[in-house]
Structures are given as C-alpha cells and as structure tokens.
Amino acid sequence: MGRKVVRAGAAPLSPEQALWIAILAGGPEAVASHASAAWLWGLAAAPSRPVITVPRGGPTRAPGAVVRRPSLPVYRVSTRWGLPCTDPLRTIVDLAVDLDPADLDGPVDRAIVSRLVSVEGLFAEIDRSARPGRRGPAALRETLDRRGFGGKPPESVLESRFLRLCAWARLGPVVTQVTAGPAGCYRIDAQVGRTVFVELDGYAFHASPEQKTADERRRNRLRLEGRVVLVYTWTDIVHDGHRVVAEIREALAHELAAG
C-alpha cells in the first residue's frame, strides 16, 4: 500500500497536484516517469492519470496513478517544476514502451529540436539501457532508424546510394560536389541536367534551428537564380527511391520545356 496523502478539499485538482500526490504516495524515491515525465519536459500532453516509477520493494499503489517498477534502476533523476522526474533520455526510452511507433515520432522530434537530447545521446542511451526482453530501447531504435536518424552516414555512402539510384533509373549525367551561387560560394551535393540540383541530408531534418535557417537561405538564393533545388534524406533515397526518381524526372522535363 502507498503512504497516505491528505489534500485540502477546497484546492482544485490540477495535473501538477495529481502528480505531486502520486509522487508523495510513492515514497521518497518515487519519480515522475513515462507520459508524466514527457509532459513535464514539454514533449507531450498531460496524461489522464499520473505515471510514476518507484524502486522495487516500494509502494505498489498511489491514488489515481499508474505505478511502474523499472527493470533498470533510475540513476539519473532530474527536477522539473520542482518535481523529481526521469531525465529526458530515460523518459524517451520509457515512453517507447507505451506508445505506438507513429505516436513516438512527435516526442522524439520535439526533444531533438528543443535540444533536450541529441541523436547521438539517444543512441548512447539505447546502448546503455538495452537488455534482453526490454522493449523500450529496441522500439526507440526502430523509430530513429525509420525516421532517418540512424547516424548520418559518411558523405560518400549516401552519395553512392544516390548515384546507384540514378544509374538504375538512367538519370544523367550526374555531377557530384559542384559549386554554385554567388562566386561559387555554395557547394551542392549533385547536379542533374543544367539547372536541377540535389542536396542529400542524412537526417530527416537538422536539429539546429540555426543550421536549418542557413540551409534555407542558401537554397532560396539558388532558386532565385533559376535553379531547381531538390532535398532528400537518407530515408528518401533508401526507402522511397521511386518517388525521388519521379521528382527528378519531372524537374528535368520542366527544364527541357523551358529550353
């Protein structure tokens, strides 16, 4: 049984209060985790019932809450809004246990863009926490791989996959590592035809907002100069090659029609 916690009847029950009650009832080592920790970190909406993690041997119940017992101890405890909770890396691994793969995409994206975590940090956490029969690390790895976060491949590897796709589709000639823009100050991954350029990004998007802004400015400059700039990720090239080929062919057809 959990410890008894008394709440003033006049106080309206908020998600924060409900979570506090659950943590107090869970004992001194209880922490917000899973969906509740994701909410505290701004990665998801507040769950309908607070979720806490308690060590083995701790209370089995807390009023109105879901009590989880970790297969691995929670070594790194953070504080958010004054509440003890799992850190962002552990939170995402735990969240991967409860969510469908498609529902995990949003929290992962928000965590990376807000710089709570890095892709490298997520993979390191997967390696640290992977155990036989533990579902979270494996599910998170599948999500990262599916979204093209599986570590940016060496430039030559991604470029090679793209060239093989072009050769299979008989697109060409293809020139790689070309310069363009004012005084040739931009380097572009590939050029197909006279005005069609392709950029290859290993990640589904750049985690850094500053880098994303710089990329878009550069691409806008090239488009204003009359070039077509197509951007593809590792996932596009490897898993959606037919669409990539169709779009390049469409761009080449417009180029031919324009003379």
Describe this structure in words.
Helix 3 crosses helix 6 and helix 4 (101-113) crosses helix 6 (135-146). Helix 8 (209-224) links the parallel strand 8 (196-201) and strand 9 (228-233). The protein is an alpha/beta fold. It contains ten helices and nine strands. 31% of the residues are buried. The mean pLDDT is 82. The protein has a four-stranded mixed β-sheet, sandwiched between helices. Strands 1-2-3 form a three-stranded mixed β-sheet. It has a two-stranded antiparallel ribbon with strand order 4-5.
Q: Give the helices and strands as they follow along the chain.
A: HEHEEEEHHHHHEEEHEHH
Q: What is the overall number of helices? A: 10
The low-confidence runs, each spanning 5 or more residues with pLDDT under 50, are none
Sheet with most strands: 4 strands, mixed
Beta-sheet strand percentage? 15-25%
Strand order of the largest sheet: 6-7-8-9
Query: What gyration radius follows from the Cα positions, in whole Å?
Result: 24 Å
Please state the average pLDDT score: 82
- The tally of strands reads 9
Shape: elongated
- Helix fraction, binned, reads 40-55%
Which secondary structure elements does this structure contain, and how are they paired or packed?
Elements: H1 15-26, E1 31-32, H2 34-40, E2 51-53, E3 66-68, E4 77-80, E5 83-86, H3 88-98, H4 101-113, H5 119-129, H6 135-146, H7 155-169, E6 174-180, E7 186-192, E8 196-201, H8 209-224, E9 228-233, H9 234-239, H10 241-258
Parallel strand pairs: 2-3, 8-9
Antiparallel strand pairs: 1-2, 4-5, 6-7, 7-8
